# Entry
Amino acid sequence: MVSLTNRVAVVTGSGRGIGKAIALKFAHAGASIVVTDTDSAGIEQTVREIETLGKKAVGVKCNVANAAEVDELTGKVQEVYPTIDILVNNAGITRDNLLIRMGEEEWDLVLDVNLKGPFLVTKGIARIMMKQRYGRIINVSSVVGLMGNAGQANYASSKGGLIAFTRSVAKELGSRNITCNAVAPGFIETPMTEKLNDEVREGYLKSIPLKRMGISEDVANAVLFLSSDEAGYITGQVISVDGGLFMG
# Structure
């Protein structure tokens, strides 16, 4: 069983969905958690559930696309915990539209949250990890970042960029005993995918060899492994958690 005892993990976008599942999975493995999101109610709920497990958690409201708020997040975490061992860049949004109809604001907002956000958070926390000469960074990308998708030029670009970012960070920080990997979820049951109509759902299911949608815990299990000491010689990699949807 993977143990994260005495580890401190920051999980962005952990007020609900995949981020929340990751935070709870980490807590079950013994880690102390920093829950951060833009949704105060979601933060409070996740913190309560972690504390119910007998683990320590603090919640910090933060828009990862805002540099000042990210600096404040890093400062608050350091006030509570002596180290930051694990960072999961999970926060993300969609603003789907066909390319010819997509407004500049839809493009900018998705790129700001999904790509600029991980840049800002990683930059701040990497400094701490470099000093302690240990760290695990996991970026939550998407299978769409590998294969593209009609109506999601902004989202696909942000998630593809996050994969390139992952590999660059892995090369820069590897000498400090810091790994950086990505997971690429496929069609996962989350509040984000609940908005899809039945026709779109059926289309996805026909393309998935396992013939079922994934759940948040499927992604959390992969992230847990990459956050562990057992994954200490794995860096710069992308693990697809998609039921076989993309096999490139």
About this structure: The longest strand covers residues 178-185. The chain is about 45% helix and 15% strand. Helices lie at 17-28, 40-52, 67-80, 104-132, 144-147, 153-173, 198-207, 216-226.
